[in-house]
Amino acid sequence: MFRDFVYLDINRVQSILAQLQQGLLNEVMEGKMEQTSGKMQMAVNLLAMLLPVSASGSVEHSRGTSFSESKVLHDYAFEAARRSLEDERLLLEDDGLDRDDVPETGFVLVRGSARISDYRTLEKISANFDKVDKIFSTRTGKQPGMGKTMKEMTTVIDSFFKDSIRVKITNPQGCEFIGPLAREHLREDIRDLIYKYSSAPEGEWVMLADIARVPDPEDSEEEALMERLEAVDGGSVSSQMGKAMGMLNVFQELFGSVAYPEVAVSPIAVYREIDFKPGT
Questions:
Q1: Is the pLDDT of residue 41 over 70?
Q2: How confident is the model at residue 144 (pLDDT cuts 50, 70, 90)?
Q3: Exposed, middle or buried: residue 37 (CB in 10 Å: 0-12, 13-18, 19+)?
Q4: Is the distance from CB of 8 to CB of 1 less than 8 angstroms?
């Protein structure tokens, strides 16, 4: 089986290996690598290249930096980290996982349909909607009020999303896992990824992620948030400032945070699995 990575946070992979492979790390720090063999030796060698320490235990900044700059061993490091999570029983892998069964914390490996949103590109499109609309639309095909809506969307994106990238994986049970992608950990430019795969790629995608938050229904109800917004009224200067901050927090919760029924995660890897079948 081959993994076609589009995203891999090697810093999180390093952290998992460093914390869960502490015994091997001690071997590296104490210079006892020659005492191991086989697959264990491979893991030790990986840690030796992964972490900025020499076999004698001294720090070598260049070694850690060179590993971070090279993608040659990243895929192997991911597999070592995934197996470490499995061995420690920290990884939940269940394609039929219902939302009610999602734990508050931990690591999950989820499979399903994907949706990628690049808000930097979406903001540019909404900001230039009138110009784009003139190019592609006929006079009879124009929708009244769409220009105003696009301007409002530009304001919302600029205020709450900026240049962020979000990925959502929806498993077969309809459970949605959503989280941000850091541009520096993408395997290639996001525009190239969307060009090749589209923003809603076909087929099954896999995401290894750390669960950040499982919102409760009552914490994400839009009506409750709007009631809090309407409760802001006059008063002293300090009171008005406090209520203004409360209003901003309401907007942040409404637009800038994950809401029920989605599950907020910190993605570590996003990829496709490609199986090689004999005779094909």
A1: no
A2: low
A3: exposed
A4: no
CB atoms within 10 A of CB 147: 13
Q: Could you tell me where the DSSP H helices lie in the chain?
A: 10-20, 22-29, 38-50, 61-69, 74-87, 119-127, 129-136, 146-160, 190-197, 222-230, 237-255
**Cis-peptide, bond into residue 52, ω within 30° of zero:** no
Q: How far apart are CA 213 and CA 263, in angstroms?
A: 6
Q: To 5 degrees, how large is the angle CA 52–CA 208–CA 157?
A: 100
Q: Output the CA–CA distances (angstroms, integers) from residue 125 to 132, 133, 136, 256, in the order listed.
A: 8, 10, 13, 20
Percent of the chain with pLDDT over 90: 40
Radius of gyration of the chain (CA): 23
Q: What pLDDT is attached to residue 80? A: 87
Q: What is the DSSP string of 195-213?
A: HHH-SS-SS-EEEEEEEEE
* Pair 118, 190: CB distance under 8 Å: yes
Rounded to an integer, what distance in angstroms lies between the CA atom of residue 121 and that of residue 123? 5
Phi, psi angle pair for 118, to nearest 5°: -105, 100
Q: Give me the phi and psi of 26, to 5 degrees please.
A: -60, -40
**Burial label, 249 (beta-carbon count in 10 A; 0-12, 13-18, 19+):** middle
132: Cβ contacts below 8 Å, ≥ 6 apart: 125
132: left (phi over 0), alpha (psi -120 to 50) or beta: alpha
- Domain residue extents for the chain: 2-87, 91-215+264-274, 216-257
The predicted structure's pLDDT at residue 64 = 46
Sequence-separated (6 or more) residues with CB below 8 Å from residue 274:
1, 2, 3, 4
The dihedrals phi and psi of 17, each to the nearest 5 degrees, come to -65, -45
